[in-house]
Description:
There is one protein chain. This protein has 386 residues and is an alpha+beta fold. The protein contains seven helices and 16 strands. The chain is globular. The termini are far apart.
Amino acid sequence: MKKYITVAFVSLLSLGVYAQDNPTNKETDNKISFLERHNDQLNIFFHIQSSFDVVSEQGKETDMAFKARQFRLEIKGNLTDKLFYRFRQRLNKPTNPQSLDNLGKATDYMYVGYKATDKITLITGKQRQAWGGFEFDLNAINVHEYSDFINAMDNSMMGGTIIYTPFKNQEFQFQITNNRNSYLEDIYGDLSAQGIEQSHSPLAYVINWNGSFLNKRFQTRWAYGIQTEAKNNYSKMITLGTKYNLEQFQLTFDFMNADEKIDRLGIATKDGAKWLEQNNQKIFRDVTYNTFILKAEFQPKPEWNIFAKGMYETTSVKDVVNYDDDFRKAYGYMGGVEYLPFKDQDLRLFLAYIGRKYVYTKAIPTLQDYNTDRVSLGVMYRIKAF
């Protein structure tokens, strides 16, 4: 009997010693929790898209070269349960400070956010304008070729945003930002000869709705905004993105429209440079842009993604002869395959074909139709470095 009592005593003593060293005790749990919070405060990512490109343009010799299309450094984290931050810098874009916001265009994000309640979040600093559309909303490394509309946009601005989530899967954003990174004259020069003056409040006002229905099968990215281009000159933009989302198939349709009192996107002004020079002007006014994008994706297996995308874009300049009726039409057509070899890594190997065709009105002999073709073999990789 004494033998059994001794064994029981020793066993209890051993359990007590084990409990002191057991990594599940309260003190160790607190240390682990602290380390998890500490790690969540600092997350470092590299965003990379690079490829070997074969490019053919009508009337020119074929070019072949390696190219780094996207290379960005991102640092973000949650400082507390309510306070968070984000910084992202392009490593292949100019960093010289701009005259209005005093930041380089290479800076995509530099903001802090505060989760005021479960339904309201506040953000202030440099951020992307809250335009809609699924192409606009994608990580840039996952876009093989942007539409001309998005490619011409300046959309990282200093400002503030209120994000309101009234209930799950429905989000509204109310945003006020600068309209541009630099003052009007620093971008376009002296426009007084055209009666255009710098605004004292060059601001943009955007309302955005991100919705999800039917267990995420139907999704929306819609937005409307007004931008102060110059004194008494405003631009209006509407961006509507709609997505049909199944487990192995996704179909997205984006529509974008901009009515610009002065040509902010600059596509019409670039193509009409000779007309402007002949008429002693620097920039077109009353320009309308329309863009339509349809993209389909199919995953026959989890590690494969097959995609196809088509784009159609038009440009018109009001009350300018020969430029007023969709004088420029742009077509885009592309397709390819992406291979995702690792489940736990955001890595894609891809082979893609991208074709573009530009058609101009025959009434402007200085503008000639042309097309380009590109085949790219490359990699998209979002590396979590820390």
